[in-house]
Write a structure and sequence with these properties.
The protein has one domain (20-183). It is 31% helix and 27% strand. It contains seven helices and ten strands. It has helices at residues 4-7, 30-39, 53-58, 90-99, 115-123, 143-152, 155-162; strands at 13-16, 21-27, 42-47, 66-68, 83-87, 106-110, 127-129, 135-137, 167-172, 177-183. The chain has an eight-stranded antiparallel beta sheet with strand order 1-2-10-9-6-3-5-4. A two-stranded antiparallel ribbon has the order 7-8. A hairpin with a 5-residue loop joins strand 7 and strand 8. The protein is globular.
Length: 184
Amino acid sequence: MGTLTTQFQTGDWVHDPRTGAAVRVQHMPFEILLQFARGGFLFAIIDATGEPSVPAKIRTLNPEQAVSLYEGTAYADHWAIAPYLVSVDEALLMWIKDQFPVEPWGIFLVSREPFASIFQNYQKYLVVTLADGQNWFFRFYDPRVLEKHLMRASKDELTLFFGPARSIVTVTWKQFEAKAFLVA
């Protein structure tokens, strides 16, 4: 059995018959990401774990452009390792590209919805409760975790998870590969 990375082929509908889930995977050229950034439709969730440059960069941005997803939660004091939601303009897109050439740094979201709507939707996924009642952090903004989640979630779960996002994009900068996931 191959990895999820090889299972997700550009242009394919990926369907899990057990859950009924379906996502479409398509290649997204850098120029399209750049157009979304210029148009104000590109957001990112950037993982600060092990990356001290992230909170430092966030402090240089306007509060309306960047916020910790831990803001307003019991985990707010963990800002140094928090996932940050940012509105991505051209300059920030280039910073992300230059800062994270190899490492899985986070995800992009494409949306026409306001920043606050995106924040509210994705903040609620930070901690999930398992069937046994235990709470666990859900690192959905890690592309390796995200692809597994997209493959296993039901169609209803995917619709709720995508929420205001029209697509969720993972990027490997070294050999520029951007995969946009769209819910069926």
